[in-house]
Amino acid sequence: MAATWVFGYGSLVWRPDFPASECVPAHLSGWKRRFWQGSPDHRGTEAKPGRVVTLLRDKRSDVHGVAYRLSPGSEPATLARLDVREVAGYDVHRLPVTLRDGRTLTHCLVYVATRDNPWFLGPAPIAEMAEQIAHSVGPSGPNRVYLERLAAALTAMDVEDAHVHGLVRALPRGVVHLSSGGSEH
Question: Which side of the chain, N or C, has fewer Cβ within a 10 Å radius?
Answer without folding.
Answer: N
